[in-house]
Amino acid sequence: MRKPKRKNAFSWKQAAGVTMMLVFLVFALLPIIWAFILALRPENRLFEPIWESPTALTLSNIPKLADSGFPKALFNSFVTASVSTALAVVIGVPGGFALAKGRSSRKFLASWALLLLRMAPPVGFVIPLFILYLKIGFLDTWWGLIGAYMVLTLPLVVWSSWTSLSQIPDELIEAALLDGATMGQTLRRVVIPAARPGLVATSVLAFLLSWNDFFFALIITRSDTVTAPVAIMNFVSYASVDWGSIAIASIVLTLPTVPVIVFANKYIVQSMGGAVKG
Amino acid sequence: MKFTIRARLATAAMATILTTVPAYAEDLNVILFGMPYTYGLAELEDDFEAATGLTANIEVVGQDVFENRITLSFTGKTGDIDVVHTPVIQVQRWVEAGWLHPVTDGVNGMDTKDDILAGPLDAYLVKGDYWALPFFAETGMMSYRKDVLANAGYDHAPTTWAELLEVAKAVNSDDVAAFAMRAAPGQGFNMFVFPMIMRAYGGKFFADYPNDLTPAINSPETLEALNLYIDLINNYGPPGAGNFNFSEVAAAMQAGKIAMFVDGTSIVAQSLDPEKSQVLEHMAIAAVPEGPAGRSPAIAVHGLGIPADAPDPEVSFKFIEWATSEETLAKIALAQPFPDFTRASVAANPEVIAKYESINPDFLNLRVEMLNDAIGHYRPLLPQWPQIGAAVGEHINAAVNGLESPEEALAAAEAEMAELLAE
Amino acid sequence: MAQVSGVQPVLQRSYRLMLMPAVIAVLVFAVLPLMGMFWLSFTGFDLVKGWDTGLTLENFTRLADDRRFIGSVWVMLALSGFGVVAQVTAGTLIAVGLEKIIPRWRHVRGIFVVPFVVPHVAVALIWLSLFTPTLSPINAFFDLFGITVPAFLTTRWGAISAIVIADTWASFPFVMLLILAALQGISTDLDEAASIDGASKMQVFWRITLPLLKPALLMVALFRFIETIKHFPLIYVMTNGGPGRATQATNYYAFIQTFQNSKVSYGAAIAVFLFIFAAIISFWVARMNSRLSDA
User: Is the ipTM reported for this complex over the cut 0.90?
Assistant: First the structure.
């Protein structure tokens, strides 16, 4: 039996723990720092150790990126990811609510089906999707991409709003209904405000899923609606890889999501408790 | 109140999306994958309009993006592509699938047909028709560091593969590895370079291409070549060389970390690029080494073709004719690192000569010499080749990295070639 | 659960209405293409040779004899198995560490999330350069001390490890976020009670925190397992499936058959296999989830 430790006493275990966290921090940050270095190095010093020529830096990759098709692709990514997220929330939250509060014997089936959709391999159904889009003229359109992204986002939104909305007491909903509110009003005024952190977090995750997609965009877009992850691959050309442009493009693609993550961090953490406990 | 503002914003956003329809205002849509020529061509859209009165939208995408998209576009007969980048390595497969429109009449009607290099042009002759006009013909070459070789007492590049191994033994050090070559598995990766050694030792893919397509890669000749390739990469290559692709080879060369490498001219040219290379002043070029069965430099040809579903093939051909004309090729050769042009007249253009002589006095002549030595079916011209090349490449790579013995790898490669041909 | 019987039937009808849009969207954008995938797998569609729409089982009988396919399943299991263990371990250690070891470094949390938002294509290219000895700053750094870092991508297990490391880098934040959330659901009273009883921090973690995290850990592990089945850009960019075929996982092989070899129907059959595999796994997840939430 040991005595409880005093707060400020030095402890080898504490030191070991902090060391472990620092190692993880290096692991998390090293590739990011490496990407920054690649983005800022002139071509002939790209892979020279940075400590051998720490001042050989250039900003020339930035205007090069601005002149390429990348800004347009970034815009396409932004539009399709936001709209598909918004639509998934508008359609999925009522659905998740219904699953959480409605009485049905098929709930288990529903939850399984939702997971299944999330997990079907895109390689298999991207070709039928391509053929479908060809027939209905959805190839290389924002709507086509948004529709494909619903496959990614909708199950997530339904799943997590289901789990987080089931924590809302039934009494709260019934009280509102007995006061004469309609179902839609109840959802808007009572349920959604109560579940806001979870919904914000879910929206952010849904947005990131679409934002990061490579495969759907590769197959169903052409020049007009190409997205940023595919545009990055355009820097891999015949017999040469443009490391600097790839690095700067990745950084540009990552930067806008960082404030969102920081802002949503609180919400994500709050909501996930619900998602995991179900 | 708050809600209505949001609703209005949403409506406005929807309206924007709904009214954005793809705008194909141009007469022609051209899809190409990134390489110096295509980047150069995309800059010349205005020249095309001035020359023909037609407008073109030239889109240049990454090679992987191109390959995955284009087959689906062809299959779906989307009809939105007027001119397509057509690598020789794919042309047989595309013709077999009925994806291309022949350009024979157009080619035969050209006044300057004789100016086009015959080898690259004839590579597009399938079943009696031409299917594309070449703009790019890359061949093999060696690039090496004079200083490193000189320190070991060699005043010239090795001329045979056996001699190259000797030199490699003499110059290899921890700072500068003796040799590098693509080794990553892939039809366009290790299978672009390995046949240079294989054919030099008398190895071949088939018993008697194109008459007898019995797989014949499992031969003592190929085994000898494979053993040499493995020895060079594993014992005289930089660490990790067994997974090197063109970009790693080029980067290692530019950083001065290898003494010799053999690859396509577009990689060799990068070792001579002042903006990229740190060891530019030490670089020299030489012929692809010979073996007991002679010399077999790699060759890769790219051209422009017309998809079968293109709405107006005649207009498409006008673009191709302009894009592969002497004037356009010369312009791009001057504006870009593009020594791989396909017209004799461009090679005789004084400005072009002056530009490439200033980089390396031997480059253009050596290129012509290598092109003359290269055989058209360096990689067999078959519809199934992309698949066969990939499968063989995987076994060659497995042998390099010790997952299979060289004997096993060749036997397995030969068996798989037979399976793929039988399908 | 208290139910007011008078509103219940009306409620059920509204609930059903609320579910409709989601059901329709799922049907159009997911179920329809999925059915297409199943149909393709029973026909003979070759991009080059054309489409034989007659129904056949040939694609599936071929699968059973295809050594490359069977090999790819083992590769997939290795990549997913090691990947999940690595990601869940790293994510959990970081989450627990953030809560218990450095609870006051609040901004560090944000940093740990960043890898999650880097597109996978970029993740693959960045790690490819880190694992290529002549390009990597890691090798250059250790060279300063005369230490040679081995080349990962040229051996079977090295290449698998490299992909697992890159995937762990990109995915541990997902695990971390979920575990952080689960940790907040665990009452700190228990910790305090235990430490008053004299248990060390380690003992508290092993005996109290970890058992309470078990449901969350299992869920996260299964989520990640099914995600790792879909591995694609990392393999495509980092190893091209090599050395040899050592990193050709099943999903990658389906891609090769579909796009490189033009055998769309065969690729679809492989995808159907993956889908059924995922179905079994997700059935397990869903059942466990409902059991855990009932408990």
Answer: no
